[in-house]
Amino acid sequence: MKSTGETLNIEEKVFAIADQFDHQGKIVQIKPFGNGNINDTFLVDLDGQTQTSFILQRINHQVFKNPAAVMGNMVRVTTHIKQKLQRQPLERPWLMPEVILTKNNQDHWDSGTGEFWRAISFIAGSESFDILTDPAQAKEVGTALGIFHQLLSDLSPSQLVDTLPGFHHTPIYLQQYQRALAQNPKLTGSLGPEINHCQRVIKTWLDQCGVLETAKAQGQLPLRLMHGDPKVNNILFDRQSGKAVSVIDLDTTKPGLIHYDLGDCLRSGCNLLGEETENWSAVEFDLDLCRAILEGYLPQCQHFLTAADYDYLCPAIVLISFELGLRFFTDYLNGDRYFKVKYPEHNLIRALVQFQLASHIQSQEDAIRRMIEDIRG
Ligand code: ADP
Ligand code: GN1
Ligand code: MG
To answer: Whose Cα sits closest to atom 16 in ligand 1?
Structure first.
């Protein structure tokens, strides 16, 4: 492509970028796709025989400062899983998106002006859900996360780069919140009740923030490869069979605690109103869906989970919604620099949803712990 400069409109620009990649066919249509909060995602339709569509994404460079490392990890993870599946096929269909190289054989396209784009194969015939309602679907979600952890359990964490330092380190998010509070224009004058509420909630969680990081630092919990972001819309279902067939959005797959993954999967999968609801005070954590996710997850991973791992599953499930609420609230205070927003108070409302969910999870902690023990057998 000669240029993606001012003279091209956005549609022409995306067409021209899609053509940087080594796809098989003529591009017939490109449309925005999915509901991700971080990257810009497009579905590119081709008229070719061998490949019908692919996903084109602009990597959010504000968030991921080293896009080349993100892509290096993605290639390593997808190659590892593909090779492992060839040696030891699963008893069910499982698909991994593949990185499509540029015509110059690169795993991403660097515009030279601060934009980084990638192309990955589209998992055809799939769909993702923002909200779960059915325990059978929830069990599939848990199974999918378990399969993902199990498939990566023999890839050394040292093989992957930390693409987002501080990601899922609750005490670091707390420091970022405290920095955002200082001289914040949103906190001068009379504060809205929602802002006051968030500040009060955060105070009640201060003592618990470090529980997982302390256990990690003391060597009680091993570093493994975590997905980092296994919320339910990052799990793809086959439209025909209704079975989960893939876990996508591998940007944050890096060394860490898989506990956060289970927590994240549960917080997003057991909230019947979904994380985008404005009716935040009615948000609840559904124990039936929780049981179904755990019943899917734990059997896949029980052969490598240690006794200490089990001890910290419940604290992680309790902590993760609070952590996300803290991240949303801090981003609101910072002027929405991280998460994409659709309206000015969006991150504030999202924070309220997560704080409400965290408090409901906490009130059911004993039941969740018993559930884990029961399924573990
Ligand atoms: P973000 O980091 O912004 O969340 P994702 O990688 O999760 O971006 O992509 C956004 C959405 O696009 C996903 O939730 C999913 O619905 C869809 N999607 C992404 N990659 C694929 C793929 N390879 N096949 C099918 N759908 C995909
Ligand atoms: C982001 O990229 P997406 O939309 O799948 C975020 C997650 C949050 C989630 C909340 C890299 O996930 O950590 O839990 O929003 N991803 C990153 O919806 O920050
Ligand atoms: Mg996503």
So the answer is: 34
Domains defined along the chain, listed by start? 4-122 (3.30.200.20), 135-376 (3.90.1200.10)
Distance 2 CA to ligand 3 centre (A): 31
Query: H or E stretch including 237?
Result: strand 235-238
Full-model pTM: 0.95
The predicted complex's ipTM stands at: 0.97
Looking from the CA of residue 338, the nearest atom of ligand 2 is 19
pLDDT tens for each residue of 54-98? 999 999 999 999 999 999 999 999 999 999 999 999 999 999 999
* Closest among 72, 45, 77 to 59, alpha carbons compared: 72
Write the burial class of residue 279 (CB in 10 Å: 0-12 exposed, 13-18 middle, 19+ buried). Answer: exposed
Ligand number nearest to the C-alpha of 338: 2
Which ligand has the shortest distance to the CA of 331? 2
- pLDDT, position 5: 45
Does ligand 1 come within 6 angstroms of the Cβ of 300?
no
